[in-house]
UniProtKB/TrEMBL annotation:
Signal peptide: none annotated. Keywords: ATP-binding, Nucleotide-binding, Transport. It holds the Pfam family ABC_tran. The lineage of its organism: Bacteria, Bacillati, Bacillota, Clostridia, Lachnospirales. This is ABC transporter ATP-binding protein. GO terms for molecular function: ATP binding. InterPro entries: AAA+_ATPase, ABC_transporter-like_ATP-bd, ABC_transporter-like_CS, ABC_transpr_LolD-like, MacB-like_ATP-bd, P-loop_NTPase. Residues 19-257 form the ABC transporter domain.
Amino acid sequence: MVLRRKKPLHETAGSGPLLKLENLVKIYDTGAIKVLGLKKINLTVDRGEFVAIMGHSGSGKSTLMNILGCLDRPTLGHYYLDGVDVAEMTPDELSDIRNRKIGFVFQSFNLISRTSALKNVELPMTYARVPKAKRVERAHMLLERVGLGARQDHMPNELSGGQRQRVAIARALANEPPLILADEPTGNLDTASSIEIMELFRQLHKEGATVVVVTHEEDIAAFADRVIRFSDGQVQSDTLNTHHPGGGPDDRVEDMLKVEDMLKVEDILKEEAEDAD
């Protein structure tokens, strides 16, 4: 049940922060007990920011992600997306907002298995009733942008995990949404592919996209400019990553690559030892 609340004046779409949460509360009512998922969250994300949201299991980060993605509604408070309060929208209105305003990237890719990379990228534009010629042209352009132009006719099972996630990112960009929302986007990837995907997010951010990544990995959060940590349904800390201990994102990339190289060397040594036997 979503409780009614007194609505303040709306901000104009396209002005002010892209995301704004005011006294946002989420209560899960199981019948026997009520569980407080989020406790009076006040938070803004400006246009063009690259933000990582972190927290352990049960911290509230997944609940927040569902609300930011308009997959769930708050019990109390306000959530402004692109200047519009979406907290009391109907399911159909939220579906329209998701298609127009949010580009989703999921841990499990969520590609349609029997459909080509090109058709997967076209899908959000099909829902938005974009003419076929225009959506094919844009889907091809987006796959080129993520380095997969030559693989547009491949099925997902013909692509590596990193390539499938690139297709998912291209699909997220299809309708030019103001928000890219990524939920554990590297969770199913190896180190090298994780670096490639996070570098792609950084490039999109440099080009002006607003990127919010939900992750539990410190190395992945290091790519973001701002890290928001959740605990027990509340914001525990909200810090800039400019002076992150141990170096910035570029240093973390170098460290991750060193680890990857060491693992490859270990594999080679094991193979040589087996051949010697």
